[in-house]
Specification:
Oligomer: single chain
Order of helices and strands: HHEEEEEEE
Structural class: alpha+beta
Radius of gyration: 36 Å
Helix content: 25-40%
Amino acid sequence: MVIVKFYAGWFVDNQQKFFQNRYTPLTTDQFLNQLNVCVMNKIKVSLLALATIAFGAYAFKGVDGSITGKVRPADGATEAWAVQGSDTLKTAVSDGAFTFNGARAGTYTVVINAKDPFKDATINDVKVEDGKATDLGEINLQQ
């Protein structure tokens, strides 16, 4: 017991001496300067994190447009194609309706593959803008 009490007392005395010699009180200006540096570093890290999140959200945002339309008669076509230069999109015609998602901005030619006895339909100069849907309306297939 005596050894434990001696050690505990020695530890407390030396700890107080260590901290008294190690740390000196700061003046108000020094304290505010350190506080300012700490706050500014936190603000910088927060702004960097916010900018990273914003950039990531924008980079993966789908800004492509789409092309939609309806075919009459509803069972007269099987698939539709949208062509712009070397960029070709294909979609199925279901119940007379079709949608091309992920169409980049530009001018497309849309081709509707018709079933017999109908003829294929071609719509030229279909303009697509980023983030907007282009509706072709109703396309009547001819026999």
